[in-house]
Design brief:
Helices cover about 35% and strands about 20% of the residues. It is an alpha+beta fold. The strands form 5 sheets. Strands 1-2-6-3-7-17 form a 6-stranded mixed β-sheet, sandwiched between helices. A 4-stranded antiparallel β-sheet has the order 11-13-9-14. β1 and β2 form a beta hairpin. The protein is elongated and about 85 Å long.
Amino acid sequence: MTQDRDQDIIDAVHAALPQTLDDLRDMISIASVSSQAQHGEDVNRMADTLVGLIKLLGWDDVRLIQAGGKPAVLAHWPAPEGKPTVCLYSHYDVQPTGEVALWQTEPFVAVQRGERLYGRGTADDKGGLGLHLAALRAFDGKPPVGVTLLFEGEEEIGSPTLDALLAAHRDELEADAYLICDCGNWDVGQPAFTTSLRGVVDCVVEVRSLDHAIHSGEYGGVVPDALTALCRLLATLHDERGNVAVKGLVSGRAAEQLDYPEERLRAETGLLEGVQFIGDDSPVDRMWMKPSLSIIGLDTTPIALSSNVLIASARARISLRIAPGDTQENARDRLFEHLRVNAPWGVQVNCSNAEANNPSQLPFEGPICEQAFSAYTRAWGVEPVLTGTGGSIGMIASFQQAFPQATILGTAVSDPHSRMHGIDESLHLGDWSKGAIAEALLLDRLAR
């Protein structure tokens, strides 16, 4: 009987996918880049589009909520008596495109090539929105359990007002389980539940050595220029092996030492021939349980505008990923201290913080997790892997703090080849459909 019911749900999801794919294409066409002011209207249009799609399910309780930031979409389907409530989360804002000329096709035009759908937001995270819609459409919009939808518009800028939203709408958002569809699968054809995430501290460091630029020939060799000083300072952030050299940061080891061959890492990342990996310990420890630090931007004189002067000031943007067990406050303080103490030649250093999120650990235990494991195994045909991730999804820590008794599941539509945040972002459509089936099966199992 269970197998027959599962098959009915699988068939219903497949029937819902064509329309949902069309809706996903439409969503991708909306440039909802939350970090860029010129896309403010696109962000609002994306939120309004989601409200319309949810109302088409037959739901009446659908509205936009705000706490001084971008709008979030909140919707409810009441739980039948004695049934649990599940909150389905995804975010509708996306990253900037980067250099558009490097994309094979227009970033905001969804294009299918083979089994993948290309476009900004396909995998991060509008594919998650579509997955939720397909699962709900399998029940004709009337799921067998209570469902709350929270579709956020600020995840790509660190969810700055989410805590305020959770506090203001706590009663409406309280649920037995939260499905956070914003993590990553282990591989194409291999689902995963994420059990640990790193946090992040994003800062800008400015180095100043002069109150104005001066002739590099007349004063070079005596007066330090800011850009050289900045380069020397940034070089102190790693040791010779590439390990983060900032003292006082937390490091750990992954409970599950999953095999991550170097050949796979090279294929996934596009590491050039002859370039070595950095750091010590296993790949999963380095990516999931230890801090990492990257220089992701520089403000200085472009080569095309450069002249023979000593540069007076220069800035760098630093992204520090922090390990589970650490806190954003400790990591920020340790990073700022390192930058000030290691500044060469007495140059002035100013550090400012743009974004910070705490790391998370998600225990995979209890009856809801058991039902999830069963549903995802049925949908995918293979058992899910429990993984960590090196990425940062700060709102998971916010959900944990607001609802400590609930089960939180980190699920995904992306895979290691999705290039989230990068050029030619894509979604594997076969895995997308399996994810929708898995979610629909889980909602059904939780009602039994």
